[in-house]
Write a structure and sequence with these properties.
single chain, about 300 residues, mainly alpha, 14 helices, disordered N terminus
Length: about 300
């Protein structure tokens, strides 16, 4: 059992804790550069006829290789050419949408993914990634509409419930977000991003002791993710376990030495003195308690 310790000293003021983002590795937004066009000039004489240019078709495989090598601008060019030659191929527009999203062009990403769905209204991956694009664009209601369609096609996709949780959380509907993460975990008990997102939502609700369980389990499964360690540190700090919180922030920095959020949190918690009367917390036991909770959610859905 966890004894919840709620503190209100001067250091606990709004904005002090630097939370790591929820989600599932969404790309950063960036604005696309507008092309520059040189002004036309009137030639003194008729221009010479240009020499013929040999155009080499771009294959799906070539553009896909650029995507996997994280050369997203090249991938956009490749899939733009590919879809021009294969306008009826939903997978081409799907990959163009993904490439544009990774390149930071949300508008182009949305257009391409919607085109993929026009071609194939059952293309689940396009719905899922369009919902991610819409979430990044600050349109959670539109994302929920996409996810509702996915779940009508296949209600066994934990990924769809995880994204639904993100969308509800973005709207401030945290009870609905918690329910969605429970659904995701009932379908996939190893979904560490749903564990992290659930923990973050519980932190935002002020349920710090409850947040410890999913975050402890996420860190147990994947200790090398800095985001998980940072959020576990926050839950530990807010329950008064400053020593363990510092350990979690340090683990986040081992995973990512440039993780500024964890560095700021560590500097703060190192100045705090832990109450020696606080009962100790066993993170391994909490992680196993969470495994049992997931089992109960899964059994309830049978």
């Amino acid at each position: 059992m966890i004894t919840t310790m709620r503190f209100t000293p001067a250091w606990l003021v709004a904005g002090l804790f630097v939370l790591a983002a929820c989600g599932d590795k969404s790309p950063k937004q960036a604005s696309a550069k507008e092309p520059t066009v040189a002004p036309e000039s009137t030639p003194a004489a008729a221009p010479a006829e240009p020499a013929p240019v040999s155009v080499v078709p771009v294959s799906f495989e070539t553009a896909e290789a650029a995507f996997h090598e994280r050369r997203y601008t090249d991938a956009v060019r490749g899939f733009t050419a590919y879809t021009a030659n294969r306008p009826g191929n939903a997978w081409g527009f799907y990959m163009l949408g993904l490439s544009s999203w990774k390149a930071g062009d949300l508008t182009a990403a949305e257009e391409a993914l919607r085109q993929a769905l026009t071609i194939d209204p059952t293309h689940v991956k396009s719905y899922l990634n369009l919902s991610r694009v819409l979430l990044d664009a600050g349109q959670p209601d539109s994302a929920i509409a996409m996810l509702d369609t996915v779940l009508r096609i296949d209600d066994s996709l934990g990924e769809a419930y995880r994204l639904m949780g993100r969308a509800h959380d973005a709207k401030g509907e945290r009870d609905e977000a918690v329910t969605a993460y429970h659904e995701a975990l009932a379908l996939d008990s190893t979904d560490v991003w749903s564990m992290n997102n659930l923990g973050l939502t519980l932190i935002n609700q002020g349920s710090f002791d409850e947040a410890l369980r999913p975050l402890a389990r996420a860190v147990e499964l994947v200790p090398e993710v800095a985001t998980f360690q940072n959020n576990l540190g926050i839950a530990l700090e807010r329950t008064g376990h400053f020593t363990l919180a510092a350990d979690a922030y340090r683990a986040a920095l081992v995973a990512d030495s440039g993780f500024t959020k964890a560095s700021v949190n560590l500097q703060r918690v190192e100045t705090l003195k832990e109450d020696p009367n606080i009962p100790p917390v066993d993170l391994k036991s909490l992680a196993q308690e969470f495994v049992q909770q997931i089992g109960s959610w899964a059994n309830a859905g049978e």
